[in-house]
Write a structure and sequence with these properties.
The structure is a single chain. The strands form six sheets. Strands 4, 8, 9, 10, 11, 12, 13, 14 and 17 form a nine-stranded mixed β-sheet that branches. A five-stranded mixed β-sheet has the order 1-21-20-22-23, covered by helices on one side. Strands 5-7-6 form a three-stranded antiparallel β-sheet. Helices cover about 25% and strands about 30% of the residues. It contains ten helices and 23 strands. It is of the alpha+beta class. The protein starts with 5 loop residues before the first strand and ends with a strand. Bound molecules: adenosine-5'-diphosphate and magnesium ion. Magnesium ion binds near residues 214 and 287. Adenosine-5'-diphosphate (ADP) binds near residues 114, 145, 289, 322 and 326.
């Protein structure tokens, strides 16, 4: 994790005064203005210190919920060999979205848009028996997809951070249990980020298979048209104490008992007949996660087999599960902002407390601020201390609020009453 607390005078926070003309949605505008990201090319962004802090906090929550569900973290490279993708038949099928690279030895390489092939290769090299199953492996790594229309800042980038998990099971019934674990982990992850996510039946697209859900956060600026039953919004998030080795099917049944579909899968007739008029939501949404079960689509051609209890080799049943870690930051800002700027949920706020020295240079004020800054930091609170004379960049008023959460506290050290004033 980045250092917890920071003095503004030593920080790197390049704020923009002007709103960049090409930023069409509020999250993109605020991220640029508040010095969180800087564009380096179409759909390619540098994460500046403030944005990076939030990204790391999101990533950590995603990680914790993966670990809780029993997935194991690892790290695969960004660069992959074309030959691996020839084994699955996807090297040609993937098309122009794949960034293809040739190395100095004229070997064909690519910048990974996803990792099904690589994880299948890793799995088949290490697992022989059904007794080694089930397994869920994940990594959080940068992906590159040469999107035809990168837009909305990091929301649809070309380079973006994804958490991708892969499950390996002996048969379809077992694979569905893994699928259910990820389903619950996703509900918990997005809830911890302050977001209401709705699992919607989804098209399996180029990955193929027959069971898939997209996790959608409703937002006017979302790219997908979605249709769902209002009652899904009030559904209770599965608790921290959920037994991931127990039967999760009842939770999945509950969340899939109401209508919810993206436009590719939408059935207008079923929607009209099955959902009461007052409960019909027809809106736009941001896809923050996507889970698939695709059976033996990769294990068969790539020969990822295990010996079953009958002594025969059988291809493993697989699933893959993606979370758009960098996209989530945009989704969170879309959900939490006002005219004054970002209003972060506490779980991902870059700083929890802002200390503003109203009389920088005044001995008593400086000493009081130092004390508050140090003591709060030592107590594990993330503090941004505005020790500059220009001050008030981090305060809650005006249009430059950048760093704190909606429920943040600002300690204004004026000492004019012989003490400090803490304001929400
Ligand atoms: N171009 C992108 N920029 C940012 N995030 C993305 C992008 N493409 C996909 N993601 C995120 O990664 C998750 C998994 O991707 P996936 O479902 O494989 O992609 P897609 O829906 O584009 O086929 C998506 O749910 C989304 O949150
Ligand atoms: Mg998807």
């Amino acid at each position: 994790m980045p250092r917890n607390s920071m003095r503004l005078s030593r920080f790197y926070l390049p704020l923009l005064k002007e709103t960049p003309a090409d930023a069409q949605i509020v999250s993109h505008r605020l991220m640029l203005r508040a010095g969180m990201i800087r564009q380096q090319g179409a759909g390619i962004y540098a994460w500046l210190p403030l944005g990076f802090r939030v990204l790391k906090k999101i990533e950590q929550i995603v990680r914790e919920e993966q670990d809780r569900a029993g997935a194991i973290e690892m790290l695969m490279p960004t660069i992959q060999q074309a030959d691996l993708w020839r084994e699955s038949g996807r090297y040609d099928a993937y098309g122009k979205e794949m960034l293809r690279i040739t190395d100095r030895g004229d070997r064909e390489m690519l910048f990974g848009p996803t990792n099904e092939e690589m994880i299948t290769e890793i799995f088949r090299a290490g697992v022989r028996s059904y007794k080694d199953l089930p397994k869920m492996l994940y990594h959080i790594q940068w992906k590159f997809r040469d999107e035809i229309r990168p837009r909305f800042g990091i929301m649809r980038g070309r380079e973006f951070l994804m958490k991708d998990t892969y499950s390996f099971d002996i048969d379809e019934a077992a694979a569905r249990r893994s699928y259910n674990k990820m389903f619950v982990a996703y509900l918990r992850t997005f809830a911890r980020l302050g977001l209401t996510s709705i699992p919607m039946r989804a098209d399996t697209g180029p990955i193929g298979g027959d069971l898939s859900h997209e996790f959608i956060v409703l937002a006017d600026t979302g790219e997908s048209a979605v249709f769902c039953d209002k009652r899904l919004i009030a559904m209770k998030t599965p608790s921290k104490g959920t037994d991931f080795d127990g039967d999760l099917q009842p939770v999945i049944d509950q969340f899939t008992s109401h209508y919810a579909a993206t436009d590719e899968m939408h059935d207008a007739d079923e929607f009209e007949k099955g959902v009461a008029q007052k409960d019909q939501i027809s809106a736009r949404g941001i896809e923050v996660g996507h889970i698939f079960y695709f059976g033996t689509k990769y294990s068969e051609p790539m020969k990822a087999v295990v010996t079953g209890s009958d002594g025969k080799d059988t291809p493993v049943h697989m699933g893959s599960y993606g979370v758009g870690v960098s996209r989530l930051m945009g989704a969170i800002i879309e959900a939490f902002h006002d005219d004054g700027g970002c209003k972060w949920p506490m779980s991902v706020a870059p700083y929890h407390v802002g200390v503003i020295n109203l009389k920088a240079g005044d001995e008593a004020c400086d000493a009081a601020c130092e004390k508050i800054y140090t003591e709060l930091s030592d107590a594990g609170v993330d503090v941004l201390y505005d020790d500059t004379k220009a001050r008030a960049k981090i305060c809650s008023h005006g249009s430059d609020r950048i760093a704190l959460s909606s429920g943040h506290r600002t300690a204004r050290c004026g000492l004019w009453h012989g003490g400090i004033k803490i304001s929400q």
